[in-house]
Specification:
The strands form two sheets. Strands 1-2-3-4-6-9 form a six-stranded mixed sheet, with helices on both faces. Strands 5-7-8 form a three-stranded mixed sheet. Helices cover about 50% and strands about 15% of the residues. The chain has eleven helices and nine strands. It has two domains: about 200 residues, 2-enoyl-CoA Hydratase, Chain A, domain 1 (Alpha-Beta Complex), CATH 3.90.226; about 45 residues, Lyase 2-enoyl-coa Hydratase, Chain  A, domain 2, CATH 1.10.12. The longest helix has 20 residues. The protein is α/β, with parallel strands linked by helices and about 260 residues long.
């Protein structure tokens, strides 16, 4: 059974974490499979939006604690394994950010610890009402320090700190209020609502969205003056694209643009 199931609908790729018996935990195999899919998608310009979902009753329960326990059997009590594991997980999260296409998390059931990190790392997220989000490993004596990186960049710092230090879960409505997800929808509408958002993005000029996503994250790390200088350069490059000129001409002529995408 494949750890990741991929299905494409037009320009939208859907990646489904497929280890429902383990609540789609980010095991060594799952991280490797997800990274491989992301590396493939990075070179596929015909795909203009990506959805990450989970099979079974949960989106993702975080790291595989059984594997982590086995890692302690090494002579160094697992120190090298843990360092490598958290490094590989961080690389996957950074690959989502670096992916040219926008990535949307389709979340249901539970998104816990590194699973919540995965949601926070995606560019957007849609969740079913009743979904629970938490960075709860503090309850077992492990502070979610690596999930904290994505979470603290997705929600206000006081909300992130409360989640990290109390281990408490928030529901989908609260996750929407604090900005962890874009919207909460009825469970039976989750897949269609996520696909609608993905298709809306995929219908845009792919080249413009690709350079825009890259610039979005680049400017967040800059001061305001530098950010304006950088994004001015990006917009200038965007204006030089033939398909952008076509889009402007189509708008002025009150017709649909003729984009090859």
């Amino acid at each position: 059974m494949a750890m990741i199931e991929r299905s494409d609908t037009g320009a939208v790729a859907r990646l489904t974490l497929n280890a429902p018996e383990r609540m789609n935990a980010l095991s060594d195999a799952m991280l490797a499979a997800l990274m491989a899919e992301l590396e493939t998608l990075a070179g596929q310009d015909h795909i203009r939006a990506v959805i990450i979902a989970g099979a079974g009753k949960a989106f993702c329960a975080g790291h595989d604690l059984n594997e982590m326990t086995l890692g302690r059997a090494a002579a160094d009590d697992g120190q090298a394994y843990f360092a490598d594991l958290f490094g590989r997980c961080a690389a996957v999260m950074m690959a989502i950010r670096a992916l040219p296409q926008p990535v949307i998390a389709e979340v249901h059931g539970v998104a816990a610890a590194a699973g919540c990190q995965l949601v926070a790392s995606c560019d957007m997220a849609v969740a079913a009402e009743g979904t629970r989000f938490g960075v709860n490993d503090v309850n077992i004596g492990l502070f979610c320090s690596t999930p904290m990186v994505a979470l603290s960049r997705a929600v206000p710092r006081k909300q992130a700190f409360e989640m990290l230090t109390t281990g408490a879960f928030v529901n989908a409505d609260r996750a929407c209020e604090i900005g962890l997800i874009n919207r909460a929808v009825a469970p039976d509408a989750l897949q269609s609502a996520t696909m609608e958002l993905a298709q809306t993005v995929a219908d845009k000029l792919g080249g413009a969205v690709r350079i825009g996503k890259r610039a979005f994250y680049e400017q967040l790390e800059m001061g305001v003056e530098q950010a304006y200088l950088h994004t001015g350069d990006v917009m200038t490059q965007n204006m030089m694209m033939a398909e952008t000129a076509e889009g402007i001409e189509a708008f002025l002529s009150k017709r649909s643009p003729n984009w090859s995408q």
